[in-house]
Amino acid sequence: MSVKNGAAFLAACLDSIRVQTFLDWELLVVDDHSSDDTFQRLKKHAEKEPRFRVFKNGGNGIIDALRLGFEHSTGTFITRMDADDLMPPRKLEWMHDSLLNAGKGSLAVGLVKYFSETILGEGYQKYAGWLNELTSASANFNDLYKECSIPSACWMIHREDLESVGHFRANVYPEDYDLAFRFRKANLQLAPVLEICHLWRDHSDRASRNDPHYLDNRFSALKVKHFISTDYNPEKQLYLWGAGERGKDLAKHLLSCDINFRWLTNNENKIGRDIYGVILESEEILGQVKDAQVIVNISARDAKGRIEEVKLQYADLAYFYFC
Q1: Distance CA 6, CA 173 (A)
Q2: Sheet of 77-79, strands arranged across
Q3: What count of other Cβ atoms lies within 10 Å of the Cβ of residue 68?
Q4: Left (φ > 0), alpha (ψ -120 to 50) or beta: where does 167 sit?
Q5: Which of 266, 315, 309 is nearest to 291 (CA)?
Q6: How many angstroms separate the CA atoms of 163 and 78, rounded?
Q7: Would you say the pTM of this structure is higher than 0.90?
Q8: To which H or E segment does residue 265 belong?
Q9: Is beta strand 155-158 parallel, antiparallel or unpaired with respect to 106-115?
Q10: 43-84, pLDDT tens digit by residue?
Q11: Cis, bond preceding 192 (omega within 30 deg of 0)
Q12: Whole-angstrom distance, CA of residue 219 vs CA of residue 249
């Protein structure tokens, strides 16, 4: 667990770990250059609880902190925690048992819930609902190009499997999203726990709201990188469907990686235009091709109904949903 200036919520977080029904755990908590009294509070908690081990980050940022914690860990099973969140009392028990039953080569995931001392935004509730639907269906990897579908602090894995995917070595942000792609590439089998295993606290100082690494939530560079390494087939024609702002951002990253693609739109005013050296074409071209790959990134407003309509028309194409 990495923590930076977490004094406000630290005691509640640590208490939720201390009372876990599963007893054989250790917490490696790394202070990431806090300017408040986080480190002093951590030391006091560790004096009372020998399973808390406290470190200072010799590097900078959450990736260095997670890497340091992992290097000092001794556990057979690894999970991570965020310092402003809470664990339900049976979280470790549930996830450990699920992982133990599934065996190596698996990833335990659980249901999540947001809470807040103020009004909880509808977007957070929808995101949690979407994640929980995927987890309940063991389908978290199916929608990974849309958003990070493995909750960052609601998974558990065999140590050997985490080491095999490179644990926290990669200096890539968002670190949880990059790791989720590596879990998928390793063909880990999902072991879902159909219980609320993690309580996400929403507040104005969350890193996801303030850290510059997370502010542009398109994460196009990360998605393109993993698409090329895992799913892209250069022997098949690639189509990019969508020419809104997100589609343009994806196009720039594909071009920067020297990936050739044909660019499609359902906007009649854009058909025939040259953007970044690529001429936009009508989406109706999909009816003339077979055995192709299609990155779907049309606007959220039009997405659901239009995607289903096109899938019914051109069902034999391989679709990758980035929206």
Answers
A1: 21
A2: 77-79, 155-158, 106-115, 189-201
A3: 20
A4: left
A5: 315
A6: 10
A7: yes
A8: strand 262-265
A9: antiparallel
A10: 999 999 999 999 999 999 999 999 999 999 999 999 999 999
A11: no
A12: 9
Closest among 71, 249, 311, 66 to 174, alpha carbons compared = 66
For residues 76 and 25, the answer to whether their CB atoms sit within 8 Å is no
Closest by CA position to 309, among listed 288, 278, 287: 287
Residues 6+ apart with CB under 8 A from 316: 290, 291
The amino acid that residue 264 corresponds to is L
Rounded distance between C-alpha atoms, residue 114 and residue 314, angstroms: 38
- Cα–Cα distance between 247 and 75 in angstroms, integer? 43
Q: Name which of 223, 201, 202, 197 is nearest 136 in CA terms.
A: 197
| Rounded Cα distance, 194 and 196, in Å | 7
Digit-coded pLDDT (tens) for 191-218: 999 999 999 998 666 655 556 655 566 8
Structure tokens at 183: 């879990």
Instruction: Check if the beta carbon of residue 253 is closer than 8 Å to that of residue 224.
Output: yes
Other CB atoms within a 10 A radius of the CB of residue 261 amount to 19
Helix extents (H) in the chain: 7-18, 38-48, 62-72, 91-102, 122-136, 159-164, 175-185, 207-210, 212-215, 220-230, 245-256, 300-313
Looking at residue 9, its amino acid is F
